[in-house]
Amino acid sequence: MSVSFLLGPRDLRAPLAWRHGRPISALAWLADVEAVAAKLPSQGPAVNLCGDRYRFSVGLAAALLRGHASLLPPDAREDTLARVCAEQPAAFALVDPGEPYGAGLAQRVAVDADGARTPLAAMPDWAAIALDRHAASLLTSGSTGVPQPHAKTWGTLVGDVAAAVPRLCQLLGLSSLGGLTLVATVPVQHSYGLESSALLAMLGGPAFEAGRPFYPADIVQALESVPRPRALVTTPFHLKTLLQSGLAVPPVDMVLSATAPLSPQLAAQAERATGGVMVEIYGSTETGQVATRCPVRSEVWEVMGDIRVQAETGPDGAERFVFSGDFIPAPTPMADLLELLGDGRFRLLGRANDLVHVAGRRTSLGHLDFHLNSIPGVEDGAFWLPDDVADGVVRPVAFVVAPSVDAATVIAGLRERVEPVFVPRRVVHVQALPRVGTGKLTRRELREFALAQLAADGSPVRLSHRVPEDHPAFAGHFPGQPLLPGALLLAELLEAMRGVPSLRARLGDAPMLAAAKFLAPVRPGADLVFDLQPETGAAAGVRFEVRMGDTVAASGRWLPGEGARTASEAGGSQ
């Protein structure tokens, strides 16, 4: 049976981690793993919710030692954990001492590990883990916001790190990563945060800082608390916030970035501010990290180790790009458009499911976001495509966090960077975008946010809805001529409006129907458009039209009911 130890080759007396400026040796870490493993239930899996990176790593290793896989959810919300554990009645939570999350699970185990136990004398035999053991399931939120499990064996995780270490050594000009310390702003439950902090330290030789600094001052403090050489593991969102904070960033030998494309301007600024090399990592939860580039020097990506990429035709006849390699369990297509340059080198053109077609032209939302965030004064920004189409053309909307520049300046900046058809007619200033811990924006979160923002300032909202062919109401209304009763049409409309937070705040949980006219029958399979126009004034309601193509099927007006706020209150809540 092939095995690999919990820790890769390293000086076991040297630091594996730093907590609050105090080093913890690998031998002390092993003592904590042994003690925590003895407390774990006999049945699993473990749901590792530890925010402290050191305790997370101890919990991950302790679960492996007991034969349990670790489930790594995108967040610790009660509804997320309920979905994750729906088919896992024996699942237990690993938590930081004193933290309340995971209360809905059958059992919670506090990972009481801080490196204070008596260190072991040497690497124990029990630290050898079978390579084929199920080690972890990453439950990523992805772009849709629905957690999807991605199982990883211990061999897959070991191979992932083994491919990355030589590349990082090359870029740092070091013979090994021993002595390097990693400071990460990324949640360790995320694939990138797992690979590039806890696992990279455990298997690749460096140490890691135990916290998860988020705010610029916390990042600066964490960097100052560990010795050089050091690397900052972060995202474009966190990096941009840090560099715009005005704080002096301590010298950093390497900055690693992933989860979204990094603009050349931000990459160059990061190298100037830190003095280190800026490195981007490309990969996915399915494949792990597979390629790197240094964006200040080149836009071209280069695969790591023996990883291979090739183009092939998918089941739908479209071209797709497939990555394979020793540690990738099976050839895996990426959801991206690439330009292959040979010898494992490629350019990234955008997300395959992110394409935007306007007036016969094509681009990607990622490409538009990239240029939006390159405009001086734009601290954060994202494009959104509404459901409505005017004159046969969809009109993008840009949401920006840009307190120092106005909409006209943003539009002028985009005109210099993108084709005219993609320049938005509307730029909406917001205080913040609803990003998750990794800095990503899911499609679902962005859509809900966009609808709420547009409704809050009195802008019309357009929602799409398809009437099911097998809607039960058609059985009795009417044989041979099925139609959807008006009351049920209004119920469908009301349910759709409840999905828009600002409309729900405006109307409350029980809106009052002030008027309704039914002008055309709604048949099975009808594609409906709900046009909603928030009103202004003290008793502001929402006027509506239900359309089927050019036909108005119904119109009317809702008034605020119980639990509603005034229009100004609803707008101010966003």
TrEMBL record:
Membrane topology: Peripheral membrane protein
Enzyme class: ligase
Annotated ranges, domain ApeI dehydratase-like: 460-556
EC number(s) stated in the UniProt entry for this protein: 6.2.1.3
Keywords: Ligase
Subcellular location per the Swiss-Prot or TrEMBL entry: Membrane
Protein name as it appears in the record: Long-chain-fatty-acid--CoA ligase
The protein's annotated pathway: Lipid metabolism; fatty acid beta-oxidation
GO function terms (MF aspect): long-chain fatty acid-CoA ligase activity
Gene3D superfamilies assigned: 3.30.300.30, Hotdog Thioesterase, N-terminal domain of ligase-like
GO CC list: membrane
Chief place of localization: membrane
SUPFAM superfamilies: Acetyl-CoA synthetase-like, Thioesterase/thiol ester dehydrase-isomerase
Keyword Ligase: yes
UniProt cross-references to InterPro entries, sorted A to Z: AMP-bd_C, AMP-bd_C_sf, AMP-dep_synth/lig_dom, ANL_N_sf, ApeI-like, ATP-dep_AMP-bd_enzyme, HotDog_dom_sf
